[in-house]
Amino acid sequence: MAKANRLVNERSPYLLQHAYNPVDWYPWGKEAFEKAEKEDRPIFLSIGYSTCHWCHVMEHESFEDPEVAQLMNDAFVSIKVDREERPDIDKMYMQVAQMMTGRGGWPLTIIMTPDKEPFFAGTYIPKGDRFGQAGMLSMIPQITDVWKSDRLRVDKISDQIKQSLSIPETLEHAELGHESIEQMVSAQANRFDEINGGFGRAPKFPTPHNLMLLLRHWKKTGDEFSLLMVEKTLQKMRDGGIFDHVGYGFHRYATDAHWLLPHFEKMLYDQAMLALVYTETYQATRDDQYANVVKEILTYVMRDMRSPEGAFYSAEDADSEGEEGKFYVWSEEEIRSLLTDKEAEAFVKVFNIQKDGNFYDEATREKAGTNIPHVTSSLSNAARALKTNEETLSDLLESAREKLFNAREKRVRPLRDDKVLSDWNGLMIAALAKAARVLNDPEYARSAELAVQFILKTMRRDDGILMHRFRENEVSVPAFLDDYAFLVWGLLELYETTFDVQYLRTARDLNQDMLDYFWDEKDGALFFAGDYSEKLLIRQKEAYDGAIPSGNSIAMLNLIRLARLLGEAEYEQKASDIAKAFSMQVERSPTGFGMMLLALDFALGPSYEVIIAGNPEADDTQDMLRMLREKFIPNKIVLLRGGKEQSQQITQLAPYTKYYNSLKGKATVHVCINQNCKLPTTETSQMIKILDEAE
């Protein structure tokens, strides 16, 4: 049996995957750096994550290979880092890689001095030389030679990198306004794929926050093309192979322009952000197809990604049995063997199942022999082709899906990364809470509440500091900006769903902790790492909204909402300072800041403050809430002054609300639009009229 290295004592699923490599891996920590200093050796830093396909490839090809391992053990002190566990380390060295090579990705490979100063960067490196790229077998001796014989060169490179990292962002600022959002929308329209949905060519990523901004642009301007871009993209994604038609949930991204061939990993944050945009699109269009997708996503998450304690796991791998996608693909023969003739005919027709497979193997460019279920025709067209009706066809497809799902459950499953991350759980809490109120499903709210209770009880230190990661009863790594910002987002959504004042109070408290630990008093905005975090080469600030929105963007939106909910103008000023700090970046490349522009859209208005005074259980109060939740009014806050105790609690948090009382014992709504308050009304129809007239 292979001998374990030091990673065997770690909790990260990614690090544990490498615990029996012949490479003498160390976790990031004092022991490794002291050894490198004492023995005058460079450090080989490898960063990845448990569901990263090419991380698995490099491990099997190089890190499991005795020859490569021996070279590494002789030349380096080797450190493994889970990017999801230590995003601060990943973000800093990813910036280095992009500066040195012009690209980034995982696995990320950094060679650095014992002082953590990098002088080489790369991503996936093959074992042997390939197509002009040096492989591990030739690269390691070259680096060893430079380290031993030309230390001045090493020092020069590392000094240049340090200086480049230390160059401050320009202190110039742009004036962000409605035109900034228009520029973003115009750029998206120019890249929109009118046939397949999505933006640009392959690969295609979901980027739900950009779609959420387009929804708001449609709402504000009436621009039907903005709505078309959203609907076409969401429909094509749901029809494509990027969606798991048998077990539900979305894969990470599509490698092609048609959303057919996905990278098969499933990430919690994708499920959360996609559930949010499908929920909002249902709210905007009242088209049940979008509500159904939300239910499918959340069915998957609550079935396969929820811990016994109620928190949510991080991801599921793309690979099983050493092959990407094997768990998810089907041969026609297997499908027919598991289903009745009618079920098989329906499933084969609707989901484009072919005898020789319906996608090409990327390596051989030949038909793979297996199929990725995907839809290219409407249910009505399929029903006509099969000479049946839509209801009968739907029943056949659901029966087939259940049988295939049960059969698939007997396969070897992809690895599930079962660590719990505060930030990703915050996103899922937000998604569940919003879905609960829009779809009127209290089970979603209960799931969100369980996750919140777990994080606040288990992942918060005695001194109040939030923690980033939980796994196997171990809490580790003090929280980063995203943990605070995303969890506050979840709490705000949960408050507006349940009107439990404790969620609003906790959101306020965590938001204040975030400002205390992360705010840059000199230049504004929020650092990614807190005052209490390990000191790295630099302390980064970022606002780029990539696969996940940035902490600064979500914090900006939270601050605006909290300012309106609590009547705290200081929070709105902080939100403005965040926008100002990143304004030049946004102006240069608006498509990279969709979530920040969404927050800006709230700030620019029209925006609404809706305070309802009334018995939460009474029919008139519930009617008002139901009408509010049916309408797509994204830039609003809603407060409820209910019974005596709840009203007192709200007044303590938001003193301005003490004047918002019910009239004649009836549920009474007080609406303010762009800081201008209308006369209170007890009529739901009048409330809707006030809101409609302001649009």
At a glance:
This protein is an alpha+beta fold. It has 27 helices and 18 strands. Among the domains are: 6-166, Glutaredoxin (3-Layer(aba) Sandwich); 328-408, no CATH class; 519-603, no CATH class; 608-694, Glutaredoxin, CATH 3.40.30.10.
Description:
This protein has 27 helices and 18 strands. By secondary structure, it is an alpha+beta fold. Helix 4 packs parallel to helix 6, helix 17 runs antiparallel to helix 18 and helix 18 crosses helix 19. Among the domains are: 161 residues, 3-Layer(aba) Sandwich (Glutaredoxin); 81 residues, no CATH class; 85 residues, no CATH class; 87 residues, Glutaredoxin (3-Layer(aba) Sandwich), CATH 3.40.30. The strands form five sheets. Strands 1-3-2-4-5 form a five-stranded mixed beta sheet, sandwiched between helices.
